Amino acid sequence: xxxxxxxxxxxxxxxxxxxxxxxxxxxxxxxxxxxxxxxxxxxxxxxxxxxxxxxxxxxxxxxxxxxxxxxxxxxxxxxxxxxxxxxxxxxxxxxxxx
Length: 98
Fold this sequence. Notes:
Layout: H1 6-22, E1 25-33, E2 39-47, E3 53-57, E4 60-64, H2 66-71, E5 75-80, E6 86-91
Parallel strand pairs: 1-4
Antiparallel strand pairs: 1-2, 3-4, 5-6
């Protein structure tokens, strides 16, 4: 059975990401706030839609509709690599100047 080295796998992943970017594909993040006030989000592959806010950070492209962008304007997307982990939103820490 064929296997790949870590170096080859990393390069293939980079090429795949570049092909997605060239084709205009990124991650769409949909944000909803429940009546309880809890914010939830879902992430899927998609193309940019009219009116989207486009975020490019750390080699990743994220599309946000205007309502979703407003709900999470002061948050950062993070990931926890644990059995109960996954993607989550974390408030950004603003740097205060004195």
